[in-house]
Design goal:
With about 250 residues, this protein is of the alpha/beta class. The chain is built from 9 helices and 14 strands. The structure holds zinc ion (2 copies).
Amino acid sequence: MILRVLGCSGGEAEGDRLTGLLVNGTVALDAGSLTLALTIAEQVAIRHIFLSHSHLDHICTLPFYTKNVFGHVHAPVEIHALPETLDALRRHLFNDEIWPDFSVIPSPDAPIIRYSEVEPGHTYEVEGLRITPIPVNHLVPTVGYLVEDERSGFLFTSDTAETDAVYEAANGAKHLDLFITEASFPNEQAWLAEVSKHLTPAKLAQELKKLKRAVPVAVYHLTPGDKPVMLPQIEALGHPRLSLLEQDAIFEF
Ligand SMILES: [Zn+2]
Ligand SMILES: [Zn+2]
């Protein structure tokens, strides 16, 4: 399995928190940076996009993506997400006001994107991968994803405060090579993490006690302006397998 972390041209800027992962070139998890990180040919190669939730940093390049692949894809790109997430896309994004409704363009029978509801705990087999959405604890309905093939796997928690199910899934997974989770605010802003349902480095340390697998842990979603404060806090945790999820990183399992 080849996992590519989709960076964005924002570099050190706000764009750092735009979230996107690409698996084997054809399956994306979240769509925060698809059009910033990928060539048109690479965008066209994507067949499935699994969204974790409706927040803008996870979906914001989806409209530009639909425009970029228009005329180049010969079958609809499947957008897999919770019903609440799909509903948000329909009502607030692809609503003909913010962006054309590419779920019926060029025709309802052969659109650019097709919505497909996911059910937490159910495993979906696409492109030789097994993908299982797992509910997490965030402001809106949100799932993390366990992604596996025959010999490898990783788990992406997406945005979450304290939660259990993803750790149970990681501990029970047949193959686990990487655990990706978040830390969003410095320890001094624990109140903000609490109201926005995210983690601080200190809360992350508590959470990681639930992970019983000795696998690398990669942290994402740091608030760009708070990185100078957060990086020493993450380092001070002294976790032997913890690192930042670097933009444009490529993992081969
Ligand atoms: Zn979020
Ligand atoms: Zn986010």
